[in-house]
Amino acid sequence: MVEKTNSPAWWPGFYEPFRNISERVADWFAPRADAKSSSAQYEITMELPGVTEKDIDVSLHDGVLTVKGEKHSERKEEGEGYFFSEREYGRFQRTFRLPVDAKGDGVAADFSNGVLKITVPKVAEEKQTAKKIKVNAL
User: Which of 87, 69, 57 is nearest to 30 (CA)?
Assistant: First the structure.
């Protein structure tokens, strides 16, 4: 016996493209980042067009660096026989877990021409030196 439903057979498949839409929207608003390491520091660079420095919040808590902000971008063009207007708004957030050798109290953030550059110094490595340990007789 075939059970009848009120939904057409294609109905469950209709929602499939929308299943993870919140993740896709978050990825779209999350700015791309480049990270690199040198012997002295870590560096994270993010392109943030349409964002001003007052719209950026950089924080560090328990070894996690968080960059939050809001994008406000508006462009209008008028000419003979045409009008073009484009607006783009949205909040974004990126988080980065810092390595154990990152020195959190030395984090610096610089913003220029739509590019955010965050530098995180590394903890200076202690040089291992040989040390003679005296053995005491008890």
Answer: 69
Type of residue numbered 138 = L
pTM of this prediction exceeds 0.90: no
Cα separation, 85 vs 77, whole angstroms: 6
Write down all domains in the chain, each with its CATH number in brackets.
Answer: 13-121 (2.60.40.790)
- How many other β-carbons are positioned within 10 Å of the β-carbon of residue 51? 20
User: What is the sign of the dihedral through the CA atoms of 34, 75, 73 and 24?
Assistant: negative
Which tens digits make up the pLDDT trace of 26-65? 445 578 899 999 999 999 999 988 788 999 999 999 999 9
- Cβ(32)–Cβ(46) under 8 Å? yes
HSE, CB side, 13 Å, CA atoms: give it for residue 7.
7
